[in-house]
Amino acid sequence: MKHSINILISGGGTGGHIYPAIAIANELKLRYPNAKFLFVGAKDKMEMEKVPQAGYEIKGLWISGIQRRLTVDNLSFPFKLISSLWNASKIIRKFKPDVAIGTGGFASGPTLIMANRKGIPTLIQEQNSFPGITNKLLSKKAHKICVAYDHLERFFPADKIVKTGNPVRQDLLSIYSKTDEGKDFFKLDKKKKTILVLGGSLGARKINQLVEANLEFFKKQGVQVIWQCGKLYFEEYKKYNEIENIQVHQFLNRMDFAYAASDIIISRAGASSVSELCIVGKPVLFIPSPNVSEDHQTKNAKSIADKHGAILLKESELESFPIVFETLLKDKGKQSNLSENIKELALPGATTDIVNEVEKLLKK
Question: What share of the chain has pLDDT > 70, as a percent?
């Protein structure tokens, strides 16, 4: 193996693809301080901002996904794909990576296709219980596939699969020692139960509407709410900060404190969120987004709910929310069982295990 290692990483579109990519890079950097890193993302997507903030160089490809309905973007897709394959090839030729890692998102397809064509060892990290079309295609030529759920041999070659879990923030591993600190940080009443509502960085319209419709209900239940409404909805909902026991946040800078302070969590079911919540080990009510590809959030949530580790409430069933929530709030035994069962599904060593697989490819 040559002295200087070059590592190419592609993933983006959402925080669920970007965060694992950065976590893998950080762990590799600890092991190989002299390694060179280059990220490849999609132009105009959030990775073009988040990756440089984490201290890494990134190149952008002109690529986007195919919409479910007929749009102008769909007509331009073949041109974007050809352009991205050409540019990915140029990036690889110039950077000369020793390994290419894909964590999902539009740009990882062209990048890993060209890496495979040039004989570079590739590893894909699939976060969801139901893979997207890009990773299904890439899996045929990938050397290793790191997954977070069981039974993915339905989609991927079984001999390439390693169950590692999804990388999570390391500060979540010690949240139970931060309960008081978290409650102080959010200026909470320590005698009251705290509900944490998470809709993702941009926000979730249906969850926000649900919370808004149940503000009086929460008051009657005597709970306090940390409500992360998201960037797209903050202006609409910030007025509710004036209500006692309701805190509305655009985003939460200290997720460890938010998790530590909470007693019950209401959340979307993106892969990264699910993995974090398994480690956090609090009672969770999942309200998955039905508007994502392959309905993978519902499948993620169901994989936890089927093992009695969470409650799954579909958007089409939200009229039953008050009954479901009040029953959970009053049943300490149910809360305890959910906590114990979801913790059993946690894979806290995911980042280390994924990087161990990358190392094996580097040493081949």
Answer: 94
CA-derived radius of gyration, the chain: 21
User: Does the annotation list 297 as a binding residue?
Assistant: yes
pLDDT tens profile 280-325:
999 999 999 998 777 889 999 999 999 999 999 999 999 999 999 9
| pLDDT tens digits along 223-250 | 999 999 998 899 999 999 999 999 999 9
Which band of pLDDT confidence, cut at 50, 70 and 90, is reported for residue 253? confident
Is residue 40 classed as helix, strand or coil in its secondary structure?
strand
* CA–CA separation, 223 and 236 (whole Å): 22
Is residue 360 over pLDDT 80? yes
Q: Is 169 annotated as a binding residue?
A: yes
The answer to whether 31 is a known ligand-binding residue is: no
Place of tokens 């906590």: 339
Q: Which of 85, 115, 90, 89 is nearest to 102 (CA)?
A: 115
Asked if residue 31 has pLDDT above 90, the reply is yes
327 is in an annotated binding site: no
Strand order in the sheet with 246-249: 246-249, 224-228, 194-198, 264-267, 284-286, 311-312
Distance CA 258, CA 61 (A): 35
Q: Would you say the C-alpha torsion 104, 106, 107, 112 has a positive or negative sign?
A: positive
- Looking at the chain, the whole-number percentage of residues with pLDDT higher than 90 is 74
pTM for this prediction = 0.85
Q: What angle do CA 271, 179, 279 make, to 5 degrees?
A: 25
The CA–CA distances, whole Å, from 317 to 31, 297, 320, 339, 355 equal 48, 16, 6, 23, 40
Helix, strand, coil percent content, the chain, rounded in steps of 5:
50, 15, 35
Measured CA to CA, the distance from residue 212 to residue 275 in angstroms comes to: 27
Is 221 annotated as belonging to a binding site? no
201 is in an annotated binding site: yes
Burial 4-19 (b: 16+ CB within 10 A, else e): ebbbbbbbbbbbbbbb
From 3, 47, 60, 56, select the one nearest 25 (Cα to Cα).
56
